[in-house]
Amino acid sequence: MLAADAPALREKGVEARLYAGALGEMAAPFATTWPMTLIDLKLEPGAAFATPVPMGERVFALVLDGEALLGAGRRTAKAGDVAWAEVSSSGDGFDTLAVKAGAASARVLVFASPVIDEPVAMGGPFVMDTREEILEAFADLRAGRLIVG
């Protein structure tokens, strides 16, 4: 989705552009097999936004520009930093991630997604749940059973 096509919420000093998930009354489909929320925040100096994130989902913020205070503890994150939030209790509805720009403007991407909570095994180009599945994937590759293209 291009920025021009993404719905946006504008408040004093804040532009929140939604690329996937929900933001207030707005919704944007996610083009992945696993549900996710992606919100692009642009904040003027000192502006704050209570970013709604689904309850029980894993959340992280990537600061693209400037400096931001994140979460209830108002931890400082600067451009290039990734900050993980505590997973809130499961349930319906939304929790919030507080984001506030520092003395200069800030741009922050906020991602949220349900916790997968499964084991991960990696080998070569494959990522599966178990080592046995990795070995099976390599056997399928050698036997020509994988679809390429």
Secondary structure: elements and pairs:
Blueprint: E1 8-11, E2 14-23, E3 26-28, E4 37-43, E5 48-54, E6 57-65, E7 67-70, E8 75-78, E9 82-85, E10 94-101, E11 106-114, E12 121-123, E13 126-128, H1 131-142
Antiparallel strand pairs: 1-2, 2-3, 2-4, 4-11, 5-10, 6-9, 6-11, 7-8, 7-10, 12-13
Which short descriptors sum up this protein?
149 residues; Jelly Rolls; mainly beta; four-stranded antiparallel sheet
Question: How would you explain this protein's 3D organization?
Answer:
About 10% of the residues lie in helices and about 50% in strands. The two termini are about 25 Å apart. It has about 150 residues and is mainly beta. It folds into two domains: about 5-115, Jelly Rolls (Sandwich); about 120-149. The model has no long low-confidence stretch (mean pLDDT about 90).
Briefly summarize what is shown.
The chain has one helix at residues 131-142, and strands at 8-11, 14-23, 26-28, 37-43, 48-54, 57-65, 67-70, 75-78, 82-85, 94-101, 106-114, 121-123, 126-128.
DSSP helical segment count: 1
Radius of gyration: 19 Å
Order of helices and strands: EEEEEEEEEEEEEH
Tell me the CATH topology of the largest domain. Jelly Rolls
Annotation, overall tally of beta strands: 13
State mean pLDDT (0 to 100 scale): 88
Shape: elongated
CATH architecture of the largest domain: Sandwich
